[in-house]
Write a structure and sequence with these properties.
It comes from Pseudobutyrivibrio xylanivorans DSM 14809. Strand 9 and strand 10 form a beta hairpin. Helix 8 crosses helix 9. This protein has two domains: 120 residues, Immunoglobulin-like (Sandwich); 264 residues, P-loop containing nucleotide triphosphate hydrolases (Rossmann fold). 25% of the residues are buried. It has 13 helices and 20 strands. The radius of gyration is 32 Å and the shape is globular. It has 541 residues and is an alpha+beta fold. Strands 2, 4, 6, 7, 9, 10 and 11 form a seven-stranded mixed beta sheet that branches. A six-stranded mixed beta sheet has the order 16-17-18-14-19-20, sandwiched between helices.
Length: 541
């Protein structure tokens, strides 16, 4: 397309868009309310969270949302602006992104419960342009245990029915009621006649208004079709170029695949194609984009025991360095709401990629696109001082994570109770076992509300079997809140159970991205092959 034709096309599009804008009135769309999960299943006598997401279409809009919940089976604890008689109120100003509320509840009785949006609207700051919600959503909450509320509700309904029958019997006896009823019947007929005249008048006004709108709609549709025709012509013009670029990308992808897998014996390559098909399941909104990331470190070839010796060796020019790639041209995307697991053998660069995504490290090459204000990195033992007590390390480690002193004061007892270290908080951490340190680190890291993007670095491999189950339950609560999760774990069952996509990084190189069952199977096959080769070498030696 020549430059002159392009200018003519641009001028035509601008003119048509101007006509469309002047012929259509634009109104505020309003907002919407979503829940973190389609349904919830909770245990008897337990506390749990329900994620509520409020989004508006304009930064200058205010919102007012009312949620109703079953206060016979659930007890509200905290998380909203106010609550009264089973009605939770959420209020605030409009945001450019979604605002998340983590509502905390406690179960009271077993049975089928609920929480639903019963009313809501958005408006301008001065109260004008009020728009109701398009959809009032609801989710079911199933609480395990005995339903002690159902019998009480049935007794209440029976009492109300008896009162209604008694009132009806009294009305049949009274002759005065008959006279009043006759007079009400006459008034009702007159009112119905008057309403019919009003409805007929309103109907005629509506028809006249509709007849005036039809020409404007027809003109708008014609302009829209013309614009779409021009766009379609441009798309067809460049279709060959897109197909050519797509073919080049596919060839490069196949070349990288052969390069990465030529050193391993994978019996069925069709599994790789199945893994690539997982891309079809991805959403449209990318929250983490890792493109061609390379992380290169410089390591001294000589061991230096102190700063003095280092400078002496440096002056003698005996210090030399070698470079190695912790990550080599790694690329993948994470979409909103996904739970993505990263697997690989020790030293493959899994924790390095998490630190790059969270902003702790800057890549040598490549680019990572993510809103780091929404990212929360959960890692164990970061910033622990072994010479300080457990109590002091709670505040030290919490400050490094980003918690305020007030927040830590409010949640201190909760952290200690979850870590099961009530009798050891005044002991120095150097006297703790590795399991105790891990439990304390996990309790501190997960004390706050879940961020929109969670990054978990081996936080599920802590403590004994009982504590691992408890920690997994807390992580699942954070995941069910609707967060996007990027996690590292060596436990294949944990990856398969909780992840919707798996990224396999081996020796700094991207090996496979796809469905958990396919990627984990290929990873386990590689480990088995390597173990057999080591066993054969040992037998020969």
């Amino acid at each position: 397309m020549t430059r002159l034709k392009f200018r003519r096309l641009a001028a035509t599009l601008i003119f048509m868009c101007f006509l469309v804008i002047n012929s259509i009135n634009v109104y505020a769309i309003g907002g919407e309310v979503n829940f973190g999960s389609d349904e919830y299943t909770e245990e008897e006598d337990s506390k749990f969270f329900i994620g509520v997401y409020v989004s508006t279409t304009d930064r200058n809009q205010d919102y007012h949302i009312e949620l109703k919940y079953d206060n016979n089976r659930m007890s509200y604890i905290k998380g909203a602006e106010s609550e009264e008689d089973g009605i939770i109120t959420l209020e605030g100003s409009g945001l450019s992104s979604t605002r998340k509320y983590m509502l905390s509840f406690e179960t009271l009785s077993g049975g089928n419960s609920y929480i639903s949006v019963v009313d809501g609207y958005t408006c301008n700051a001065d109260g004008t342009n009020r728009q109701s919600l398009d959809e009032l959503k609801s989710v079911n909450v199933f609480i395990e245990g005995e339903d002690t509320v159902g019998e009480t509700e049935e007794e209440t309904e029976e009492l109300e029915l008896e009162e209604t029958e008694a009132i009806a019997a009294a009305n049949r006896v009274s002759p005065v009621n008959d006279v009043v009823s006759t007079q009400n019947s006459v008034d009702q007929k007159e009112s119905e006649s008057s309403n019919e005249m009003v409805l007929e008048t309103n109907f005629l006004e509506t028809v006249e208004s509709t007849i005036g709108i039809v020409p404007m709609i027809v003109g708008t549709v014609c302009i829209f079709l013309a614009i779409m025709g021009i766009i379609a012509a441009v798309v067809v013009k460049h279709s060959k170029k897109r197909r050519r670029n797509r073919q080049i990308r596919e060839d490069n992808k196949a070349s990288r695949r052969n390069k990465y897998f030529n050193s391993f014996d994978i019996q069925d390559l069709s599994e790789l194609e199945d893994a690539d098909d997982a891309d079809d399941l991805e959403g449209n909104e990318t929250v983490i984009s890792v493109q061609n990331v390379t992380m290169r470190f410089r390591v001294a070839t000589q061991n230096v025991s102190g700063i003095k010796e280092y400078f002496i060796q440096l002056l003698k020019r005996n210090i030399s360095h070698r470079e190695f790639n912790a990550l080599d041209d790694v690329s993948f995307d994470v979409y909103k709401g996904e739970v993505v697991g990263i697997i690989g053998t020790n030293g493959s660069g899994k924790s390095t990629i998490l630190k790059i995504v969270s902003g702790v490290l800057r890549p040598t090459e490549g680019d990572v696109k993510v809103d780091r204000k929404k990212v929360q990195l959960l890692t164990l033992g970061t910033g622990f001082d072994m010479e300080l007590t457990g109590r002091e390390n709670v505040y030290l480690n919490g400050a490094i994570i980003g918690y305020s002193r007030k927040f830590l004061d409010e949640h201190y007892d909760e952290i200690v109770k979850f870590a099961e270290l009530e009798d050891f908080m005044d002991e120095k951490v150097k006297n703790y076992s590795s399991g105790m340190v891990s439990r304390l680190g996990f309790a501190i890291a997960t004390a706050g509300d879940a961020a929109e993007i969670l990054i978990l670095d081996e936080v599920l491999s802590v403590g004994d079997e009982f504590f691992r189950k408890k920690s997994l339950k807390r992580v699942k609560e954070m995941i069910h809140g609707g967060s996007t999760v990027l996690m590292v774990s060596h436990s294949m069952p944990t990856i398969k159970e909780n992840c919707s996509k798996v990224v396999w990084i081996e020796k700094g190189k991207l090996r496979m991205v796809g469905k958990p069952e396919v990627v984990c199977k290929a990873y386990q096959h590689m480990n088995e092959t390597t173990s057999n080769e080591v066993a054969q070498v040992s037998e020969v030696s």
